[in-house]
């Protein structure tokens, strides 16, 4: 099946964001299509996990859009490598601004899919963005809660906030920006004796030909860690998330907390539809392992087929 991929750009404030728009086989400019905005994991670029889902949903008849967030990949914005939740959420809404200008997109049939931290960002965007008619998530995580829980000791959050404060003061006085790695390299993991299967799976995905991209720097601007620590992507879900919601998690609990986060999200949502457990799948298996991704796509397609309009209207 031939899926046509088109490079597109759109704006968030004064930044130009770069994305890939995929259209299904048999596409006609004169028809109108249901579409899905796809939000990739934190630190990922558009060529990675989101692209896998974008391609498969396009094969199901949807126009799909995956993009690099502000400050990362091919998208503009300084400082580079910033992970700013508020800006990430606004990026998503700006992606809809692009879609509604395209004559072949049905503005009443736009769905949303978030993967990993992108799931938390997607949910947060959907709270106030009624142009999204259905929300799907795959191993969704609120990056703020996960970031706080992953700190290694009781004082770690306060210590990190103190480090950010000191770094901001230093930069205000002319010091260079400081960055930290999202993940250790394969060599660093081996030297450190890391044996956590989930972390090793993450490194295998991002640091090998399996999922590696030259456009992903693996760097995070230190001062934005305070924004992550203070973020709650699922705040007000009970009150404001009204769209049909599907939550897909891996069967292995692992150490990303996404299984627990997904269950909590589903339980809190007013219009929850499905809680899907992909048996045998680790968090990072859901990025690209065909048998698990295909199972997720089957569930997502059922959600979007019910609540969007997947067939072109001539």
Helix/strand layout:
Elements: E1 4-12, E2 15-23, E3 33-39, H1 49-59, E4 63-67, H2 85-99, E5 105-115, H3 117-126, E6 132-138, H4 143-149, H5 156-172, E7 179-181, H6 186-192, H7 197-207, E8 219-221, H8 225-229, H9 237-240, E9 245-250, H10 258-268, E10 272-278, H11 285-288, H12 290-307
Parallel strand pairs: 3-4, 3-5, 5-6, 6-9, 9-10
Antiparallel strand pairs: 1-2, 2-4, 7-8
Strand order, biggest sheet? 1-2-4-3-5-6-9-10
Give helix % range. 25-40%
The shape, in one word, is globular
Number of contiguous helices = 12
Distance between the termini: 21 Å
Largest sheet: 8 strands, mixed
Taking pLDDT < 50 over at least 5 consecutive residues as the criterion, the unreliable ranges are none
The helix/strand order is: EEEHEHEHEHHEHHEHHEHEHH
Estimated radius of gyration: 19 Å
What's the pLDDT, averaged over the residues? Answer: 95
What does this structure look like?
- By secondary structure, this protein is α/β, with parallel strands linked by helices.
- Helix content is 38%, strand content 21%.
- It is built from 12 helices and 10 strands.
- It has helices spanning 49-59, 85-99, 117-126, 143-149, 156-172, 186-192, 197-207, 225-229, 237-240, 258-268, 285-288, 290-307; strands spanning 4-12, 15-23, 33-39, 63-67, 105-115, 132-138, 179-181, 219-221, 245-250, 272-278.
- The strands form 2 sheets. An 8-stranded mixed sheet has the order 1-2-4-3-5-6-9-10, sandwiched between helices. Strands 7-8 form a two-stranded antiparallel ribbon.
- Helix 3 (117-126) links the parallel strand 5 and strand 6 (132-138).
- Helix 1 packs across helix 12 (290-307) and helix 2 crosses helix 3 (117-126).
- It is globular, with a radius of gyration of 19 Å.
- The protein starts with a strand and ends in a 7-residue tail after the last helix.
- The mean pLDDT is 95.
